[in-house]
């Protein structure tokens, strides 16, 4: 069966008709000339390769009150994603072949995006001994990304071993960089605002010290290292230095660290409580610059759903994390496209091509060209929308953008030629 | 102003109105018939998530002298992670018709959440939240300072106040720095660097690591309580070293100008941050701080709950 996406602009450039044949792109032809059994009429919106998230908390198994693989992947599709990496800090932890295969299966059953399970680095995320990384890699889930995210692999020897061990199957360790002793009881970024609010500080150095150590370890053992959610100016500087030395390191930034600052903690509203914490305006500028110049390779959501009762409380009692899948592209448009710091082609690299490459997801993040899998998203960059937490597809409501007007609406998403989103709504 | 959450919210005029009102109410407290009918029929709830008998009793006495009905809602022992949520407690108090909630909580910002989350319509008075603020303590300190240094009149322009001790964890220090600065005083904080917050350089005060210099020309020295457990977290090496470097003993007290007063928000660790003979000396106004606390808290409740026109700030 042939499907035509009429009048879409690949990377925001010259509009074309994109003809799909089954699960692949058959041809890109001049507007009005595409012929097919089914025609989706667009009006010149931006066509991108389907977005790939390297950092998604889907919460299933274990916290289905916060999110399920079904609700989380619906949110992903609405956000323009065609593949997400499901973080391992579930209950039970995704530290065995059995659990990662269960997550894979549930993702497949939901059908909205490809769910790529992340395997835990250590058993139970306890940071004591390696989980069966090889078994997870060899399983049906084909795990390539390993992370104790939520916790830092703080033991330097264990981190070294993990970096070395995953080389055997081309894996990567994705580090949540947080020196645990320096962040005991930490509630928010340590600085002028925390001093005023009397909230225990999470110093930038607790992130930077681990990143500095880990890039040196990666260099020493010749391994691939990925760093989750860079949040500080110093972290960007260290990665820039590491890359200049040829160290095989990649890094991500979250949408919220591109947009929000620690001043929001002054509301004491825990919807702004996240780990790593929101930082200063100087840090925000540094991560934007790092994303623009390629020091930071990707935007990853760190989508972290929490039920209402875990946020509707005093700051110290609240859970850390915020939703991200349905708002990520709008944040990138606001912070990077509107300011002219990134082109759409560069956005496609940072939100699709690069995360797919880091995660070794071969079916995604490919060029918009004939013969490639039709994993696509169509976005109307000018469309304004009001973020209504109750209207999100996620089971949770903890978006920091409630009542904010954002620009950029995903109008359609295609997973291997099948529409998961059409007219801005779920199509499955 | 509907709530008292932070001294940062008080203008100079607001603060002076509270102090002047407290002075008037203090005269009533000296009379045999201590009660005023101002808050008759109003309900004040003392919602204390932390054990602080002295603060609770002070608020209770203040409310009763204004003829309010007082309910003590002790939530002590209910840590932030277990027991009834703050929200559910707030909804209960709202249903009970609380006109004011005086809240003491271990979590910084809990009074702010109570006041601004739409859970409750009552006036919220912060009786100490975590390591954030303790506004009525700062007000009673200002009242005490004004009485001794300015004959109970006007502001504290030019007064030199040194606050010594665990500033990092002190809600008293935060509230005092802001309020005393608003009232024109020059505040110096003195502590080992480990017990000063990162970011303190943005506060409207001077900072010193050397006690002898910091108190040399002070008009008042305020000693903060230092919990011994801080030693285990390596904030300082030993109680002995702390008290030698940052404690106020008789020898150090003897170097102070003759008019200088010594304050402490209590409870004291005698022998740690303050020597017993200093605490009991003529310079010490520590006991008086306690009695001034009742007057100041009466003033706060009177102004927040009493007359519609006399409210602090006017909005
Ligand atoms: Zn993380």
Record the SSE blueprint:
The complex is a heterodimer of chains A (428) and B (315).
Chain A: E1 2-10, E2 16-21, E3 24-29, E4 38-49, E5 51-56, H1 69-78, E6 81-86, H2 97-110, E7 114-117, H3 133-138, E8 145-146, H4 156-165, E9 172-175, E10 188-189, H5 192-197, E11 201-202, H6 204-221, E12 225-227, H7 233-244, E13 249-253, H8 255-259, H9 281-293, E14 298-299, H10 328-337, H11 344-359, E15 376-386, E16 405-415, E17 418-422, E18 425-426
Parallel strand pairs in A: 1-4, 5-6, 6-7, 8-9, 9-12, 10-11, 12-13, 13-14
Antiparallel strand pairs in A: 1-2, 2-3, 4-15, 15-16, 16-17, 17-18
Chain B: H1 12-29, E1 43-48, H2 53-65, E2 69-74, H3 86-95, E3 100-105, H4 110-116, E4 123-129, H5 135-149, E5 160-164, H6 171-182, E6 186-190, E7 206-208, H7 211-215, E8 220-223, H8 229-232, H9 239-246, H10 250-253, E9 261-263, H11 276-279, H12 286-306
Parallel strand pairs in B: 1-2, 1-3, 3-4, 5-6, 5-8, 6-7, 8-9
Helix pairs in contact in B: 1-5, 1-12, 2-12, 5-6, 5-12
Bound molecules: zinc ion.
3D architecture notes:
The complex is a heterodimer of chains A (428) and B (315). With 428 residues, chain A is of the alpha/beta class. Helices cover 28% and strands 23% of the residues of chain A. Chain A has an eight-stranded mixed beta sheet with strand order 3-2-1-4-15-16-17-18. The longest helix of chain A has 18 residues, at 204-221. Chain B has two domains: 7-133 and 293-314, Rossmann fold (3-Layer(aba) Sandwich); 135-289, 3-Layer(aba) Sandwich (Rossmann fold), CATH 3.40.50.1370. Chain B has helices at residues 12-29, 53-65, 86-95, 110-116, 135-149, 171-182, 211-215, 229-232, 239-246, 250-253, 276-279, 286-306, and strands spanning 43-48, 69-74, 100-105, 123-129, 160-164, 186-190, 206-208, 220-223, 261-263. A five-stranded parallel beta sheet of chain B has the order 7-6-5-8-9. Chain B has a four-stranded parallel beta sheet with strand order 2-1-3-4, with helices on both faces. In chain B, helix 2 (53-65) links the parallel strand 1 and strand 2. In chain B, helix 1 (12-29) packs across helix 5, helix 1 (12-29) packs across helix 12 and helix 5 (135-149) packs across helix 6 (171-182). Chain B is globular. Chain B starts with 11 loop residues before the first helix and ends in a 9-residue tail after the last helix. Classes of the chains: A alpha/beta (428), B alpha/beta (315). Chains A and B meet through helix 5 of A and helix 4 of B. Bound molecules: zinc ion. Zinc ion (ZN) binds next to loops of chain A.
